[in-house]
């Protein structure tokens, strides 16, 4: 702990400026200079974790190896750093209050009045330092969710103030991400919102050391100098963050602006080697100059919010880029998909992913899509709910069990081909009680997935309550839908393949959580290859 240095990232002016991407980009540059670095996110909302939040509220819920349901920024951290995060990398106000209240109930405060300062702020500081106690880390980057000035962020900013003081000089740095709006009527970039945001931060006793300025137009020296003067930072610490075509360009843009250099200098750390970004650059090169373009259909229901399927979309970029291919994702709302329009909606796609999901809305459309791709032998990739839909479709249309369903949708179905696990039946609390995190899975030799993973056993991350019902395995397998991945301890079916199709795979887990820029997920790669082959064949 004593050697770990801290970088705090705060946001000003407006939300959605991309603090997570800036934090991940900085971490990438530091990692490329051999620093041991991690990122953590503090979210000011009262939910204990985002697991109970609707995707419309908060986008995707990212799941870590150790089974934490977390903010989607952790997905960016993993995809950039190529390293797993954990439970301790995402803290919410709800989880902070929960542990303080638990301590109060246990009488640990010895009769004292429990208050925001010092008890809540102490707990926040404890969580901010926790990873440095557990792991050997040179630098921890801490992203504070929300915008400076929000009522709910106040305890976090106060905790940052105290921690900076406790750590002493050159052991911490504050990066403030802000927006420089462009007024087209005046033809000018405006610095005033940033000045106010810095002032608000200073009122809480925190001084920004670096300004990262989101902007649609380049900042000239005059603007940078003005920002430096009014916001109390050095000129080389005013970093332009111009809009980029891809989030994966941001590390190189930040390197060009010298963000890593300013951070290391302020922390009194040397840059022994220049950042090794060669592999990253090669990826970007392939991303920018693709040789093929294909359309992949993503069947889901939370389509209004792109962030709902963030990790799947990023995994498609990783695997597409691997094959020099730009993937155009056609988002198809399963609620409006039926037997009459399925052909016209899916005719142009070369592969279909049926997305994860919960509840009844839109499931008949998903089942219709599976039916269409199975009968037309289009590459099919079912993820979690998508895999369950494939089992239901097969049971209904191949086995003739017309009422086959998941008990999530129809509790009393005559044919519960997907049903709730026994140990889930008694659970009443919704938060944190699904089958979560990493589980092992044995792969059947000779199967497609065995040839894809090139391993006998894998481990993948889960987030679901319902399961394939092994009572139907014999009938399903006899008609081509084979269970090719089984959990060695519980015998739960984790993977199904239709052996009558060229590429038809459903997985009960979420492979999208393990795909990174430098390590695209093998199943996504294989799906991409099959979709490209389908595309090339369908063109001739
Ligand atoms: N609703 C399904 C279940 O709970 C699938 C969940 C998911 O797709 N993540 O089992």
Characterization of this structure:
The protein is an alpha/beta fold and 540 residues long. It contains 19 helices and 23 strands. The strands form five sheets. It has a nine-stranded mixed beta sheet with strand order 13-12-14-15-23-22-21-18-19, sandwiched between helices. It starts with a strand and ends with a helix. Residues 356-358, 384-385, 408, 463-466 line the site of glutamine.
List the helices and strands and how they pair.
Blueprint: E1 5-11, H1 19-31, E2 37-43, H2 55-58, E3 62-63, E4 69-70, H3 73-81, E5 90-92, H4 93-105, H5 116-134, E6 139-144, H6 154-167, E7 172-179, E8 182-183, E9 188-189, H7 192-203, E10 210-215, H8 221-231, E11 238-242, H9 250-257, H10 259-266, H11 278-288, E12 292-300, H12 310-322, E13 325-333, H13 342-346, E14 351-354, H14 363-376, E15 380-383, H15 385-397, E16 405-406, E17 416-420, H16 422-425, E18 435-443, H17 448-453, E19 457-464, E20 466-468, H18 473-478, E21 481-486, E22 493-498, E23 504-507, H19 522-539
Parallel strand pairs: 1-6, 1-7, 2-5, 2-6, 7-10, 10-11, 12-13, 12-14, 14-15, 15-23, 16-17
Antiparallel strand pairs: 3-4, 8-9, 17-20, 18-19, 18-21, 21-22, 22-23
The chain binds glutamine.
Throw out a few tags for this protein.
alpha/beta; nine-stranded mixed β-sheet; 23 strands; binds glutamine
- The number of helical elements comes to 19
Backbone CA Rg: 25 Å
Structural class: alpha/beta
**Average of pLDDT:** 94
């Amino acid at each position: 702990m004593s050697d770990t240095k801290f970088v705090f990232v705060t946001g000003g002016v407006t939300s959605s400026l991309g603090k997570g991407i800036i934090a991940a980009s900085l971490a990438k540059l530091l990692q490329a200079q051999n620093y041991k670095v991690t990122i953590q996110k503090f979210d000011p909302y009262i939910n204990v974790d985002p697991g109970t939040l609707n995707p419309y509220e908060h986008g995707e819920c990212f799941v870590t190896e150790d089974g934490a349901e977390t903010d989607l920024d952790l997905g960016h951290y993993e995809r950039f750093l190529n390293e797993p995060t954990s439970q301790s990398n995402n803290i919410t106000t709800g989880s902070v209050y929960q542990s303080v209240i638990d301590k109060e109930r246990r009488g640990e405060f010895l009769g004292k009045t429990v208050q925001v300062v010092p008890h809540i702020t102490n707990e926040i500081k404890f969580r901010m330092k926790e990873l440095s106690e557990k792991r050997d880390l040179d630098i921890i980057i801490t992203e504070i969710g929300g915008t400076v000035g929000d009522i709910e962020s106040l305890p976090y900013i106060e905790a940052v103030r105290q921690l900076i003081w406790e750590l002493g000089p050159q052991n911490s740095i504050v990066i403030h991400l802000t927006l420089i709006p462009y007024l087209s009527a005046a033809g000018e970039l405006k610095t005033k919102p940033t000045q106010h945001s810095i002032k608000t931060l200073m009122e809480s006793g925190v001084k920004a050391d670096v300004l990262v300025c989101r902007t649609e137009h380049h900042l000239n020296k005059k603007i940078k100098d003005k920002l430096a003067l009014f916001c109390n930072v050095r000129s080389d610490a005013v970093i332009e963050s111009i809009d980029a075509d891809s989030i994966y360009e941001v590390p190189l843009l930040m390197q060009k602006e010298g963000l890593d250099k300013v951070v290391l200098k302020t922390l009194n750390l040397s840059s022994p080697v220049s950042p090794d970004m060669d592999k990253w650059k090669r990826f970007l090169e392939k991303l920018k100059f693709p040789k093929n373009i294909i359309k992949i259909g993503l069947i889901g229901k939370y389509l209004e919010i792109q962030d709902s399927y963030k990790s799947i979309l990023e995994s498609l970029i990783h695997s597409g880029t691997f094959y020099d291919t730009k993937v155009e994702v056609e988002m198809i709302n399963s609620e409006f998909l039926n037997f009459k329009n399925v052909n016209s909606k899916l005719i142009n796609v070369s592969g279909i992913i049926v997305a994860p999901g919960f509840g009844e809305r839109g499931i008949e459309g998903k089942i219709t899509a599976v039916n269409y791709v199975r009968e037309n032998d289009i590459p099919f990739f079912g993820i979690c709910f998508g895999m369950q839909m494939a089992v239901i479709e097969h049971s209904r249309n191949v086995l003739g069990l017309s009422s086959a369903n998941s008990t999530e949708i129809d509790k009393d179905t005559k044919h519960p081909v997907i049903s709730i696990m026994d140990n889930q039946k008694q659970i009443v609390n919704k938060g944190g009680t699904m089958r979560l995190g990493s589980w092992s899975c044995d792969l059947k030799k000779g199967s497609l997935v065995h040839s894809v993973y090139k391993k006998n056993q894998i481990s993948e991350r889960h987030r679901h309550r319902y399961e394939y019902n092994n009572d139907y395995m014999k009938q399903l397998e006899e008609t081509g839908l084979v269970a090719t991945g089984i959990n060695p301890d519980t015998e739960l079916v984790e993977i199904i393949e239709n052996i009558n199709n060229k590429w038809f795979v459903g997985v009960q887990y979420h492979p999208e959580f393990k795909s990174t820029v430098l390590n695209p997920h093998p199943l996504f790669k294989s799906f991409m290859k099959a979709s490209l082959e389908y595309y090339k064949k369908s063109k001739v």
